[in-house]
Design a protein that fits this description.
Structural class: alpha+beta
Low-confidence stretches: none
Number of domains: 2
Number of strands: 4
Helix content: 40-55%
Oligomer: single chain
Strand order of the largest sheet: 2-3-1-4
Shape: rod-shaped
Strand content: 5-15%
CATH class of the largest domain: Alpha Beta
Distance between the termini: 5 Å
Largest sheet: 4 strands, antiparallel
Order of helices and strands: EHEHHHEHE
CATH architecture of the largest domain: 2-Layer Sandwich
Radius of gyration: 26 Å
CATH topology of the largest domain: Alpha-Beta Plaits
Amino acid sequence: MIGVVALFEVRDALLDAIAAARAQQLTIVTAFSPAYDPRIEAAVGVPRSAVSAWTFAGGVAGAIGGMAFTIWTVRQWPILILGGKPLVALPSFLIVAFESTILIAVCAALAGFFAGGRAMRRVARAAYEPSLSEERFGLLVACVSADAPLIGELMTRSGATAWRVVRS
């Protein structure tokens, strides 16, 4: 991917550049900010994370699996003497189902974090600079190499202090 990364000193200039890029129908890859800013996130149009779906699916799978495993285990030894109590007793099985729900949901959430984070890290690695975590803002716009000077000029008109072409 070829893109232009523009550096800004103030947040309002970054928001102006995002609006200008949207007006020109350019593809905004990501924006960099030294701290979380909901206005920047809304302007860029960051997609919702899939981690909650991974966590929910893991929790459901853990609950079903935990209940099925305990019932299967008890059914393997039907000659157990429990003093007249039923072999498949819901109250005692809920404890195992609850614990397996938590375990599998946490594992699925971690898998979702790693899967989502890995994809984004590859895209933005070439554009990142340490100053973007301290006091500057940045915007990465995808383009073809012939359009890079035009996009750089658009970013400069919007308030960018510097811009450069990146390849990843």
